[in-house]
Amino acid sequence: MRKVFLAACLMVSTFYVTAQKIEGEFGPLAAVDVKSETFMFGGSLSLKAKLKGGESIGAGVSGFYQPKAETLMLPVYADLRIPFATNVELVLQPGYTIYENSLVMTGVVAETKGSFYAGGGITGYSPMKNGNRFFFQTKYNYFSFKSTVTNRINNRDYVTKTDGHAHVISLGLGVTFGNK
Fold first, then answer.
1. Where are the alpha helices (DSSP H) in the chain?
2. What is the pLDDT of residue 174?
3. What is the pLDDT, as a whole number, of residue 119?
4. What is the pLDDT at residue 24?
5. Nearest to 102 by CA among 68, 146, 64, 62
6. For residue range 115-126, what is the model confidence (pLDDT) as tens digits?
């Protein structure tokens, strides 16, 4: 998975060389896990290269903090944008989630690590007087996890490996800069 991510980073960097302009985005976000109804908050930061047709490609990172579980998920992704109306873009974000959580109880050790991430949604923009833009984004986020549970019974380890996932709807807003 890391080789695929590194290859994607190299491909993204070639687009920066041929870009018409470079722009960045940052802002806060609020999110809800659809299954567990857990509230999350955080922020996002991305850097994109605008291409001749109006599309953009770049890289980004978001942070999703779950206060109830006191955990942080950090998806790192390629940021692909395709315009389909005036000041509206389709957002596609394949990547990897940096996440690690462990629980230790008598005789049991449970570890969960991040895996594949995918985000998709719509971003709307509103121009500002200084040439930058406000943005509002609504997005579906898919988080994949790999878990290992080790049960020690009578000095023997029994290991169970499972894959899990989370479906999260997020709303973000912020500023796009470098659009001048």
1. 2-17
2. 94
3. 96
4. 92
5. 146
6. 999 999 999 999
Contacts (Cβ under 8 Å, ≥6 apart) of 167: 33, 34, 35, 140, 141, 142
Low-confidence ranges of the chain (pLDDT < 50): none
CA distance 76 to 93: 9
CA dist 97 and 52 (Å) reads 31
Structure tokens at 70: 């006191």
What pLDDT does residue 130 have? 83
Cβ atoms of residues 118 and 97 within 8 Å: no
One-letter amino acid at 32 equals V
Task: Give the three-class secondary structure for 125.
Answer: strand
Residue 109 has φ and ψ, to the nearest 5°, of -125, 120
Count Cα atoms within 13 angstroms, Cβ side, for 154: 0
Nearest of 105, 116, 114 to residue 151 by alpha carbon: 105
Counted residue by residue, the chain has a size of: 180
User: Would you say 29 and 45 are in contact if contact means Cβ atoms under 8 Å apart?
Assistant: no
Cα–Cα distance measured from residue 30 to residue 62, given in angstroms and rounded to the nearest whole number: 11
Q: Return the pLDDT at 12.
A: 53
CB 168 within 8 A of CB 32: yes
